[in-house]
Write a structure and sequence with these properties.
CATH class of the largest domain: Alpha Beta
Oligomer: single chain
CATH architecture of the largest domain: 3-Layer(aba) Sandwich
Number of helices: 9
GO molecular function: ATP binding; ATP hydrolysis activity
GO biological process, one term: iron ion transport
Main location: membrane
CATH superfamily of the largest domain: P-loop containing nucleotide triphosphate hydrolases
Radius of gyration: 19 Å
Strand order of the largest sheet: 6-7-8-3-9-10
Protein name: ABC transporter ATP-binding protein
Order of helices and strands: EEEHEEHEHHHEHEHEEHHEE
Pfam families: ABC_tran
């Protein structure tokens, strides 16, 4: 089943086109990873699909409707996004930040209801951040802050969650902690997860579907076997890879690689 897809999407800034005639289907209730080199259009695609930026031509369809025509609060009840560099949280407590996720459900008075507080506590519980509820966000570690941002996205109660490089600046343990949390949300609550990842082996391990981009176009989209292979990675990253098997998941993994020289 597919609820969300793009059709011949073109996105750019000024006269420079970043995403070009891109048509992609996002599998429902699955984890999708978007990979590609820096500047290939990964973040631009995410921003366009969540209506943070406008697109020039083409369409983005969610539940049979073009998202450009959707009411902002209605759209915010369907999809949430965790950007690559979240805005400053100076002075906010964890509970206050997570409460922002309830904005789509608030009346014109802007007051939190009993249901809002219940959802906030649930989101904190699920992300194991409830003990930090009254602590300043700035006082937390990088991994703790990332889980709090995910809690805010969960408080939106959306079926689809977009994350732009959720493991950036985190050490290996905290990267794994965040990715395992997202996988748990997908498996236990059937959330559709769409995330940009730089680590190919993390993409292979955690994603059900991978979209490989180069210069704003799709080189290959499919399961791990389709994308994490010598030919695709050569085309996308200009690297010569040795592909093995993850002994724990039996999924393909990049064992080592060399940078290709020239046009070879």
């Amino acid at each position: 089943m597919v609820r969300l897809f793009t059709d011949e999407l073109n996105v750019g800034y000024s006269d420079r086109l970043i995403v070009k005639d891109l048509s992609v289907h996002i599998p429902d209730k699955k984890i999708t990873a978007i990979i590609g080199s820096n500047g290939c259009g990964k973040s631009t695609l995410l921003k366009a699909m969540t209506r943070i930026i406008s697109h020039q031509t083409g369409s983005i369809i969610l539940d049979g409707e073009n998202i450009t025509k959707e009411n902002t609060k209605v759209l915010a009840k369907k999809m949430a996004i965790l950007p690559q560099s979240p805005e400053s949280t100076s002075g906010l407590t964890v509970g206050e930040l997570v409460s922002f996720g309830r904005f789509p459900y608030q009346s014109s008075f802007g007051r939190l209801t009993k249901k809002d507080y219940e959802v906030i506590d649930w989101a904190l519980e699920v992300t194991r951040t409830k003990e930090f509820k009254f602590r300043p966000v700035d006082a937390l570690s990088g991994g703790q802050r990332q889980r709090v941002w995910i809690a805010m996205a969960l408080a939106q109660e959306t079926d689809i969650i977009f994350l732009d490089e959720p493991t950036t600046y985190l050490d290996m343990a905290h990267q794994l902690e965040v990715l395992e949390l997202l996988q748990k949300l997908n498996r236990e609550q059937e959330r559709t997860i769409v995330m940009v990842l730089h680590d190919l082996n993390q993409a292979a391990r955690f994603a059900d579907y991978i979209v490989a981009l180069k210069e704003g176009e799709i080189v290959k989209a499919g399961n791990c076997e389709d994308v994490i292979n010598h030919h695709v990675l050569r085309t996308v990253f200009q690297i010569d890879t040795e592909i093995g098997r993850d002994p724990r998941t039996n999924k393909p993994m990049c064992v080592t690689y060399n940078l290709l020289k020239g046009d070879s």
